[in-house]
Structures are given as C-alpha cells and as structure tokens.
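User: Sorry, what's this?
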Amino acid sequence: MNSQNKYVVSCLVVLCIAFALPIQATKLLERVCYYTSLTPQGDTVTLSGKVSVPCGKTAKGIILLPHFTIAANKEVPSTSTIPESKYFRDDYILVMPDYLGYGITRNREHPYLRGDLVAHHCVDMLVQVCDSMLFDMCVEADAGINEAPLYIIGFSEGAATALWTLRLIEKEYPNITVAACYAGSGPYDVATTYDDAVANNRVGMPLAIPMLVMGTSESYGLNLRREDFFTLEMDGCYDTYITSKEYSFVSLYFLMASRKVNHWLSAYAMDKRQADTRRMYESFLRSSLVHFPYAEDIYRDDSLALGKDTIIPDWQPKAQVYIFHSYDDDIVCYSNCEHLQKCWQELPNVTFETGHFGGHLRSIFAFMKRVKKKL
C-alpha cells in the first residue's frame, strides 16, 4: 500500500470512528415516506425519504438534513442510517430526503450538484411531511413539538443543497421560518470547482466527475454523449460503477484509484472551445450559487468570455447562517468558501469558520461537532 492509499485509509478510519462516537441514547420512531415533486423536465415524480422522531421527549426542533454525496442506493436515508443523523437524532425531528436518482427513483440519473433543483425536492418533502404525517408520528412516539424551530444542516453536496434550500424558502415560502442554516465544505461554485480540477489535473473524489457530467446533461437536457466526454476506461465502467448504484462511496474511492482528471475525462470534455463542452460549462454556471472567475484559468482566449463574469447570490439570507470550510480540503476546493465570503462577509447574521481542520473526510466530523454545540 503506497503512502497516498495509507492516508486515505487513515481518513476513512477516522471518519468511521467519528461517526460511531454519538451512541443512540433515545428510542426513535422512524418512517419511510413518499412525496411528490418535479423532475428537471417539469413532470410530477414521487420521491422517497425518511422521518425520525425521538420518543418520549419534546423535540428541540426540526432539522432538514440533505445528505452528502453517496453512490450506492443502500446509503440513502430511506434504506440506511446516514452518518450525519447520528449527531442529532436523540433530540431533534429529522427530515431526510432521498435525492432524485436514489430511493424509489434509483433508475434515474441523479442531478448531481443541481442544488436549485434538489432544493425543491427538500422543501416539498418538508411541507408534505409536516402536513400529512408528522403530528401522528409525534403522538405515536409520545413526543412533543411545541413551536419547534427549523434548522437546515448539510455537508459537502448537502451544504450546497442546504443553502439553495434556504434561498428557496426565504424567496418563495413566507410562512416557513428557518432559524439557522449550517453548511460545511460545500461546492457552491460548481464552475470554479470544475476549473480547479481541470487546471490541476486532479480530483479528490473521482466518482464526482462522471456524476457531474451526466447529471448535468440529464437535468439540463444537453444530451451529452458519454463517448465524447469520458475516456474509454470511464465509459466502460460507468454503468457498473455509477448507473447500477450498487457500489458505495467508500468502495468507489478505492476502485476509481486514479486522482488524475484526464484518466476519466477526455480532452474534449476539458476544452471549452468545443460546443458541447461550452454548453456543459454554461450549465455549471447556472448551477453555481456564486461564481468568481478562476484565477488560474488555463483558457485565456478572451473571445470565449466563458466563466469570466462574476455571479453574486441573488439574495441575502435572513436566517442565521454558519459556513465552515477547511483550508486543507482535498475534495471541494477552498475557493468555494472564499467566494461566498466575498459576498457575505459583511452580513451580521452570517458566520464563517475556516482553519486547518484536515482534508474533506477528516473535517466532516469537526463540522458536525461544532454544529451540535451551536444548536
């Protein structure tokens, strides 16, 4: 085992230990639920998720908990206990959506990093659960829910989803009040995250590459051809590794061993002068909550004018917001947090905590422990 793999193994061990620390102390009543929302094409779709209620106590609040990036269907909330939930399940009612492409929609492509779209799925679950089943669950669990505040908590993909969800609620749901939103190490600037990976020919989580390309293609109707965007190896293993949703995040971390972008993406996919690549990148910009031009952009042709314009968030949050990111993050580049800071650092209700918390996999439990103390 080389030094890089030893480091990865150590990170995963730390991660597993960290998530094992919060031992369940309260009996829980859990229910898989189904709710309706919309596909990227605007069609009605039934999605799944899970609701968890602590028994025999008054819940301190309701937490909407969008999960971080997963790969296997067995990792979704409706079929498992997601790691994030272990920190909050004893004291809070948890509303945990399966993203489109997982749960009962596992045969669909997941619209990876389409936070604007997944936010609608999260809010639809929250509203429908509160309207239809939460009261009955609380009665059955002998649990109180007196004026319970609403929180949104997410890490990595879940962090971007959390902020997009807060945006949607504050812009379109005046009857819903969010007490606070906690976002850790999220890809808020999808375009720059792609630029950073291409410029450095390195990706910390290789499964994100095919998920982003095909998820963007499906959700925006781009009809990108896999054989144009993937190398032969990636194209050959895509159905087995990604489409099947049989391999876990950890399994793919090792099976897709190369961290070089050009091992998985074709030269065509990394060249913004190509028409389809331009359409893909323009979609990345549409999926970005914030965007600043990449400082080390290798595409210097001013005639492209692609990704050169700054995108400022089109709203300022009213709720308390906590943004966490490690300088050492090796999966979601730190510039994502930096770009939000440029826009929101003067807002009194937004707090940024940055520092050397280790890589992405190590920093997740530092984030969760900090959030638990803040609640």
